[in-house]
Amino acid sequence: MRYHTPATFEDASAIAVAASGVTRFLAGGTDVLVQMRADIVTPDDLIDIKHIPGVKDIVQEDDMCWSIGAAVAGAELTAHEGLCADWPGVIEGMGLVGSTQVQGRATLIGNLCNGSPAADSVPALAAAGAEVSVVGPKGTRQVKVADIPAGPGRTTLAKGEVISGIYLPPRGKGGGDAYLRFIPRTEMDIAVVGCAVNLRVEGDKITEACVVLGAVAPTIVVVEDAAKALIGSTLDAKALDALAAAASAACRPINDKRGTIAFRTDVAGVLARRAAKIAYDRARGAK
Amino acid sequence: MPLDSKTTGFKYIGTRPDRPDGIDKVTGKARYGADAYASGMLHGVMVRSPHAHAKIKKIDASKALALKGVKAVVTRADFPTGLEGEDWNIQENCMAGEVALYDGHAVAAVAATSLLLAREAAKLIEVEYEVLPHVTDVDEAMKPGAPAIRAGAADYSVPEGLHPNVMRYIEYGHGDLDAGFAAADLVMENTYKTEAAHQGYIEPHACLAQLGSDGKGEMWVCTQGHWFIRRMSAAVLGIDVANLRVTPSEIGGGFGGKTTVFVEPVALALSRKAGKPVKMVMTRSEVLRATGPTSSSSIDVKMGMKKDGTMTAAKVTMRMQGGAFPMAPIDSALDCAFSCYNIPAVHHEGYDVLANRPKQAAYRAPGSPMAAFATESLVDEMCRALKLDPLKTRLKNASREGTKASFGPTFPRIGLVETLEAALAHPHYAAPLGPNQGRGVASGYWMNWGGETSVSAALGEDGSVTVSVGTPDIGGSRASMALMAAEALGIPYENVRVNVVDTGSLGVNEPTHGSRATYATGLATIEAVKQISTKLCQRAADKWGIPAEAVIWEDGCAKPSGPNAGEFPPLAIGELAAEMGGTGGPISGHFEATPSGHGGSFGTHIVDVEVDPETGYTSVLRYTVVQDAGKAIHPAYVEGQFQGGAAQGIGWALNEEYIYGADGRLQNTVFLDYRIPVASDLPMIDTVIVEVPNPGHPYGVRGVGETGITPPLPAVANAVHAAAGVRLRSLPMSPPRILAAIKAKG
Predict the structure, then answer these.
(1) Interface-testing mutation among A257, A261, A265, A277, with chain B (most B C-beta atoms within 10 A)
(2) What is the ipTM of this complex?
């Protein structure tokens, strides 16, 4: 196994392009190292991106967009007042990953690139409209977070492509987001169902909404009908019923050791209702 | 045995001094199984079957052996043949012979100069299998057409016509069952199922083994009982026990699962072949796949009750699979099933069944939690039907001194009534509940154990005392032994050091199992140190020129027994010890026996849960354990045992389970998916120590380690029923199952 510490993302990409065997990018390592120890993956080339300048930075740009480096750990995000104020749903999703110890290492981009349909930070990132910058052999491109997952353990990134940073849009006025997941325990577990809701209100009326489910299909699911159920409503009982029905209808889950199809389908609707209420309260509290 | 009993007026017993092993453990200095090193040491890695049931057609290790640094490969061919009974079972479990019997069954092992190399070499060992049909569920394993795992191996007890997977059959009872049911106002019968659960000890099995071509060996190992390790390893390898010296490490949990061997004989075999010490450390996945979880069970219970709650008759049929080997704990499960109650007619039936799963091992009160889940759930269902208070109903029928136990003997002084009365009087039982919340109660029993015990105590030159015991300290026994020695000698707790010593230093000791250490090792410790005080009285008598009978031992000093004995100032232990070399030589005490005066312990638990009606999620809001300790030597440790039993029981009740795929492979081989409760899942577990002294121990001790896991399974099920209006008769009561039950109810 070769261990690399490139100084730029372009170098990181070049190493990956040149590699002929199994390649892994290493940030926090909370998935990669576990997989290596469990014999799930044995990389020929391990490319550590933590030595690249800027990867630990959280910066609010002039347009109020948030730029988050590829190696920023969960604990740094949950301790960041500005991010927590703007995107509480995104941050609470990331904060649910692993344990306190894991939070000291785990990153948003690692959670995204691991490709798990149950990744806790991804639904809220997608609901927020977050984008990532992807550095590859053909240059740099901007991609929506929602377009990265391709299936369990798979992403749409091409060979040699590496994510260099993540961008959360300006929060603006009247916005609120929330993420809830279901696990049978209180922590140290993987989502059986996850649901993120991001919305905007004018007065009591919802003007924008995005609902994203996790762990109920091979990738996260952006539920357009659920968003439609919310937009134009004041989160009344009828809107909540329609939201829950749309969320459940969008599920394409499996039976496995973590939950059943029926359970995941039911609980997706339950979590959508609950997350929408939290996001709605946050949006109105923020106005 | 005649013993001077003392149950009140203690100076040290009942206090809570710091634990002697605490600093080493919290600073990382304590040495556990994997912390043993030897020069030239190799690392051993097991090759395990990926199939639930498969004939081993060929094993080719040539590619592995060709790697530089690979020093030995062993298969079953490296072990002796001709073993019988449980020895054969243990050998077969440590290394498969002709057939791999479960997913994870060891089929070969390799030793190499590094762990990475050994892991690489293990992947290069080629095993050719012929996959056979498998069965993992106990009820399925008894059905016609189920694959026979070891045809013809059933013992004499099994009636004709049963499936060859039924290894043993038990039936017993007393009283007129038909008359009992006829006398009842309500007869109810239900079937309950429990899934296998793992002990979940933090420390995986680990050992460092050395065995020479001369047949002499040594082993350092994480275990609850090193004489068991010695006997089993010697049997599996065909060597004399005296040639194997076994030293236990500190132990990161056992709960019964470390009373047998898995990697130990294999490490010895690798060492013998390679001519070097070999260390083997299991991974968590190996622990879950291939050590001994509990049996899973399927249980029919029928009970009769009068309108006033009087129990009239009870019948239980217990089916348990203990993996691909006999000895599922049907015996103790049946013995505990109705042990809490004085019922005129009881009948027990048990089936010990094979399935393609790992060989079960002991887990905290083996069998009793499953039995309690069935019987204590049914008692709750009947109390609901008759609108009776569940604690008062239990009290009405409770076993007490003189009751003919459901399993035969007459109970001596026991403390069930006292635990029930304490639970009834506890503020928890009357506390208000909110919406979607419910309260459950249940009682449970474990008979405890005495067992072979050998203890030595030696006096130091300064009057301090070293106690050598053979029972590894899994639950605070060193502190408890030191307290009992301090009490018996009248010297400070800090002046006693207790060591767990190797198999070469004492006579045979059974493991720390059966909640026996504080009882049996404690009794032996008291007797051993009393020999020291007797000898010290003799030295003082010699010095004073009076008969030894005229000297008494009190508060750490020899004193004349009264004015007639003469006027002499007391001689403290330190003074006598300082001059012992010149007054007759070293002073020590030794006691060994198989004490049988262990007293059973009963417990009653109260639990409040809240069930989310939309997700089926259960949160445990409040939990109270009431249990009879006989006498709590170190109350903080006793409380810890109560809390630990409750925590493990809650996990077993709610989320822990062995999940097998259609291919017979275990699906959840890591703690992420084998869902033990994490700290934030549990409330602070309140404890009430009831003390009804055990007449069989000098200070009244009963074992406390196991009873605590017996009531939680039904107590939680009863609370879930109260909270959500649904009765879960299969474990675990995971959210999907509870939600499905709520939806089915409508």
Answers:
(1) A257
(2) 0.95
